[in-house]
Inverse folding.
């Protein structure tokens, strides 16, 4: 075993899981986990959901208590930024000048929010949400704002909108697309969410181009759209997606496209450097082995396990069913597979409620299943997708359309990755 440690950059879910999985795999060498955030590693999903409403304690967001790191001999360096990789000598330089040798380097550097660049975007009450600090700032302001404007009708924008409604705030959601979550879900699922959020009081403005954030002194007072409409607001939250943190890899001459490029073992072209989680552009079997970058808890967790197995000499390719969830008020969206490149959808509505299941096919082959408030169907869909991954038929559009056809019967048991 090398005398040098495995060094992991990023204390988000992927970095934390990689350190933890290495110990689960029996790795007995040193592990250094470095992150530029000062908090103990914490879960991000609650930040746009329960945490925004009072009552969720910060300690409950932690992945593990402080003692875990000592018990597992994971050397956690918080509040430190990795600034340069010397690949020839396998050394990593930190922002305080420290230099660390590594046997293997795992880049789990995640993604950062895309910034709005229109005039007024830097006014004091224009916020966005990625970190615990961001969530805290939004939560504090939600206590006394009357009108929230959310720019971006993606998952995070809509989760924030739903949480704000519970705080009795008036909410307007603006998006350049013509429907919510347009890049991520089928039109049928968008329609369910548009209807339900509107019923609950969200005002949507679609096909809307933001021209500037209007303000007085250093405070935003609303959003001006290109068609001349002014949308008044005393808090503006921008949720227009993220971009992968590629700078460290780029300056080390590693290949980057929409993320740090890795193979199916999460290895870059340098055999001593891997990349995982939101920052990793990897070949995905659900996208016909095209390079994709996923932003989900499942992806960060499973890629971390994959890289840990590789480091201990048990390399297994990353071939797992992608899945995702988003909680928006009373609606739970769950996705199994990838809603990508489909050419046919079959919708099964719940006759008793607002739930539905949407099956997405490409050339007759199932590529993804969206469910709204139907968790049992989601679990069955994950098992069906696993059987597709193993070379099985999955289900046909005709079976999907047949309300008597029981999805659970088509589902093979899932073996954990
Ligand atoms: C508000 C919110 C809600 C979400 N809700 C859901 C959900 O409901 N369901 C779901 O599946 N997914 C959800 N996600 C997505 C999920 O949380 C992410 O996919 C996951 O956290 C990615 O983990 P990661 O470790 O790859 O990246 P990150 O969580 O971004 O962690 C990367 C870390 O690396 C640090 N870093 C970057 N560069 C350096 C450097 N040079 N030196 C040191 N540190 C560095 C960053 O500051 C960060 O702490 C949500 C995300 C957010 C932000």
């Amino acid at each position: 075993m090398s005398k040098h440690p495995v060094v992991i950059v990023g204390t988000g879910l992927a970095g934390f899981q990689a350190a933890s999985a290495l110990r689960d795999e029996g790795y007995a060498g040193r592990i250094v986990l470095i992150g530029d955030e000062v908090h103990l590693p914490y879960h991000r999903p609650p930040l746009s959901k329960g945490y925004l409403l009072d009552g969720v304690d910060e300690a409950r967001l932690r992945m593990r208590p402080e003692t875990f790191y000592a018990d597992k001999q994971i050397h956690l360096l918080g509040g430190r930024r990795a600034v340069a990789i010397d690949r020839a000598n396998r050394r990593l330089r930190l922002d305080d000048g420290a230099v660390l040798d590594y046997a293997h380097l795992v880049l789990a550097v995640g993604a950062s929010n895309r910034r709005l660049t229109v005039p007024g975007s830097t006014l004091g009450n224009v916020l966005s949400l990625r970190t615990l600090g961001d969530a805290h700032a939004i939560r504090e302001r939600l206590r006394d704002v009357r009108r929230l404007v959310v720019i971006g009708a993606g998952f995070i924008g809509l989760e924030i909108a739903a949480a704000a409604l519970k705080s009795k705030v008036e909410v307007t959601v603006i998006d350049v697309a013509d429907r919510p979550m347009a890049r991520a879900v089928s039109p049928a699922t968008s329609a369910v969410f548009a209807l339900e959020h509107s019923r609950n009081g969200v005002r949507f403005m679609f096909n809307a181009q933001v021209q500037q954030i209007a303000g007085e002194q250093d405070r935003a007072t609303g959003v001006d759209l290109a068609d001349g409409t002014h949308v008044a607001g005393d808090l503006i939250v921008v949720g227009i997606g993220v971009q992968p943190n590629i700078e460290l890899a780029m300056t080390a001459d590693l290949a980057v496209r929409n993320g740090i490029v890795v193979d199916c073992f999460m290895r870059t072209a340098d055999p001593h450097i891997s990349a995982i989680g939101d920052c990793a552009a990897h070949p995905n079997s659900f996208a016909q082995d095209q390079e994709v970058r996923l932003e989900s808890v499942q992806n960060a967790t499973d890629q971390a396990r994959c890289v840990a197995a590789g480091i201990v000499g048990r390399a297994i390719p990353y071939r797992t069913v992608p899945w995702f969830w988003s909680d928006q008020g009373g609606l739970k969206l769950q996705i199994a597979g990838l809603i990508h490149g489909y050419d046919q959808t079959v919708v099964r509505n719940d006759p008793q409620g607002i739930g539905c299941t949407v099956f997405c096919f490409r050339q007759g082959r199932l590529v993804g299943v969206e469910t709204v408030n139907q968790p049992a169907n989601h679990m069955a869909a994950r098992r069906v997708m696993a059987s597709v991954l193993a070379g099985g038929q999955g289900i046909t559009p005709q079976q999907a359309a047949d309300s008597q056809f029981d999805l659970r019967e088509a589902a093979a048991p899932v073996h954990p990755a």
User: Anything to note?
Assistant: The mean pLDDT is 95. The chain has three domains: 6-112+243-311, 115-240, 330-410.
